[in-house]
Design goal:
This protein has about 260 residues and is of the alpha+beta class. It has helices at about 5-15, 20-30, 35-40, 45-60, 80-105, 125-135, 150-170, 185-190, 240-255; strands at about 60-65, 75, 120, 140-145, 175-180, 195-200, 210-215, 220-225, 230-235.
């Protein structure tokens, strides 16, 4: 295996697409080129290279001229990427511990005056109902974090686009941290302005099994369980909702 193949393979393992990994390697090999010059060397389409650059720039893997982001493009060192990953792992460890706390709380039968602090649905129709009921909450803004690719796995593109269109027509804005840099994540980044969305990407491998929506007084977690079955967890308990809010704030504050 050549050195290039090893680097491309490692970059793919941390969540980059093939075009992103190729663009990083090319920028590392040919520093100070314009985006147009790099595009010609990679042989990818202009749209693919622009999307790849945008994500790599947001991740801090590429730098560019302050005066013109399409010029003087350089790749940060592999050592710098390694340091970024180490820092990310420390942050994810803290988030992982909080998720474990939430998981233990979900499995308890909570006593108190609140009726049904948690709802867990596995029926396909009820999972979809839980998703669209998010749009019925009395909130003009929602906070979202997780993998957009997971939504496509669960609902398919048609149902997911229907959700986005209804949210947009209702004028509900949302702040989103995507933890996986997949095809649908890039589509969302490209359309965020017209779809009332403020989107960041923070590649986090340990947070790619779920998508969490925080809206009004509820948090709705959509996921596939260990058996690959769809599941919706609707959280109504204020303390548990607050925990999800803190997770979002942590991801949002540490995203580029």
């Amino acid at each position: 295996m050549t050195q290039k193949q090893q680097i491309i393979q490692l970059l793919r393992r941390i969540g980059l697409t093939e075009s992103e990994a190729e663009l990083y390697f090319t920028a590392h090999k040919y520093p100070k080129l314009t985006l147009s010059e790099l595009q010609k060397k990679t042989n990818y389409s202009t749209a693919s290279v622009y999307r790849a650059f945008d994500n790599l720039y947001n991740l801090g893997f590429l730098t560019a001229s302050h005066e013109n982001w399409k010029k003087n493009i350089e790749a940060v060192s592999l050592k710098t990427i390694s340091e970024k990953l180490a820092c990310e792992q420390r942050k994810l460890r803290k988030i992982e511990l909080k998720f474990k706390q939430l998981d233990s709380l979900i499995n308890f039968s909570l006593d108190g005056d609140m009726e049904d602090p948690l709802e867990i649905h596995t029926d396909k129709n009820k999972v979809a109902d839980s998703y669209f009921q998010i749009l019925s909450e009395d909130a003009s803004n929602m906070r979202v974090f997780g993998s957009a690719e997971r939504l496509i796995d669960i609902f398919g593109s048609d149902l997911e686009r229907a959700f986005v269109n209804i949210r947009r027509k209702k004028g509900i804005k949302c702040d989103v941290v995507l933890t996986e840099s997949g095809d649908y994540a890039k589509e969302l980044m490209a359309s965020e302005g017209r779809e009332l969305r403020n989107t960041k990407i923070k590649v986090s491998p340990s947070l790619q099994d779920t998508m969490c929506y925080i809206s009004g007084q509820k948090a709705t977690i959509l996921q596939k369980n260990k058996n690959g079955e769809d599941r919706a967890v609707v959280i109504k308990d204020p303390a548990l909702v607050k925990m999800q809010e803190k997770l979002f704030d942590s991801l949002w504050g540490n995203s580029p």
